[in-house]
Amino acid sequence: MRSLKQLVESATAKPLPEEDLNWLHLLLADWQVLADLAAADLVLWVPTDQGRFIAIAHCRPGTSSTVHVDDIIGLYLPSAREAALREAMETGEVIRSATARWAGTYTVSEVCVPVYRGGRVIAVITRETNIASPRLATGFEQWGQRASDQLCAMIARGEYPYDSTPATAVSGAPRVSDGVIVIDREGVILHRTPPAVSCMRRLGIRHSMTGRILAEEITDVMIDSPTVDEGTPLVIMGRASWTTEIAAHSSSITMRALPLLEDGHRVGAVILTRDVSEKRLHEQELITKDATIREIHHRVKNNLQRVSALLRLQSRRSDQEAVKVALAEAERRVQAIATVHEALSQNVDESVNFDEVLRSILRMVGAVSSTDHAVEVITTGSFGSLGADHAQALATILNELVANSIEHGLKDRDGTVWVDAERINGSLVITVADNGVGFEPGTPMSGLGTQIVNQMVRGELRGTIEWDLRPEGGTIVTLRVRDGHA
Prior knowledge:
By secondary structure, this protein is α+β, with helices and mostly antiparallel strands.
C-alpha cells in the first residue's frame, strides 16, 4: 500500500510541502469522529497536474452504512463531479450540492469541504451521505449533523484538526458510538446520546442532565476522588481538545472534548464518552496477579536461602570431609535456583535477563569452589531474556559445568573457563570450556553433577550435550537446546 506522500507525489509534479503533509496526517488521524457524527463517508481529494482530482484517503462511518463498498483510493473523481470540488478550492467555502446524485441503488448527498492551511486550500474532503440508509447509532440524527457541519466549517477555516489533539488510537479512547454529549459555550448540556447517559449513570448521575452544566455534574460525583487528572477541568468544560479519565462509584469513564470554534472563539464542544470500567478492573486484576507472582518468587527465594544457610551450618558442624563437600555442593545448587527466583521477583512477567543471572552464579561458584588457584571466568555472547523454566534449568546446568571445570579440570593449576552463548537457527548453543587437565575417555557423566546436567539438558530443555577434549588442552562441553527467548 502506498503512503499518503507517495499518492500525492504520483498526482502532481510539485509535491506538497512537508508542513502540509503533516497537517493532512493530523486530519486523517482524527477524522473518524467527523465521519461518525455525520454518518457519512469522507474522501480526501488532491488536484492533479491534469486538472483532475485523485482520492488519497477514505474513511467509512461507524454509525451508518458506507457509500463506497469498494476501495476508491488512487481513483480519479468523475468529471461530472469536479465542478463542486473546484469551486470549494477556489472560494475556500464549504459547497453543498443542490441536488442528490443517483448512485445506482441509492441517492447520495454531497458536501465539499476545503482543507485550509497556511493561507491556501491544499485539498478537498467530500462528505458523502447515503440518504436512504438509517443510522446504526440512533439518538443524534439532527444535532450530530450540525456538529459535523461545525467541524467541517472549522476545517475550511484552518481551525481543525487541533494542534493539541491527543493520540486517538490509544486503548480506551472514546468514539462517537460510545457516547456523545454536546455542550454550549457556558458548558450547559444541549444533547446526549443513550450510551452517554449510561456512562453518566455509571458515575452516579441518574437524573436528566439536559439543561444542566456538565462541569458541575461531574464535580459533584468526584468530591470523594483521591486524585483528579489536571486535564479534567479543560475536558468537562470543553475548553481544550484533550482526553481525561474520571473515576467514581467504582466506575471509570474516559472523556474527550472537541471544542467547536467560530473564528477562534469557542461556541461549544462535543464531548465523547466511553465506559472503561471493565477494562480498568481487568488491568487491576492483572496488576494484582503480577504482584502475587512476584511475591511468590520472593518468598521461594527466601526459603531457598534459608535452606542454603541450614546446609552451610550443617557443613560447619561436620568433621567428615566428604560430608562437607557434599553439603557445599548442595548449597551451591540451591543458591543457583534461588538466584533465578530473585530475578523473577523483580519482573512483571515470567522472564529474566539471564546474562545478569549468570554473572551472579559465576560469582557464587568462584566464591565457594574448593580451589586455591587463580581461575578466570570469561563470558562471551548473550543469553538475553529467557523464560522462567529455561532460566531455572540453565542456572543449574551452568552452575554444575563451571564448578566442575574449576574443581576438577583446574584443580591443581591456574587457568581460564570460557562460557559462550549464541543463537543459531532457532537454537541456543552454549559452550563451556577450560584449559585444564581434560578427562579420561568414558568418565564424563559418571559423577552426580554431570548426571544432573545430562538429565536436565535432555529432559527439561530437550536438547543435546557433547563432551570433548580441547586440542589446546582441557575440556569443552557443547549444549544445544531450543531457544527459550522470552
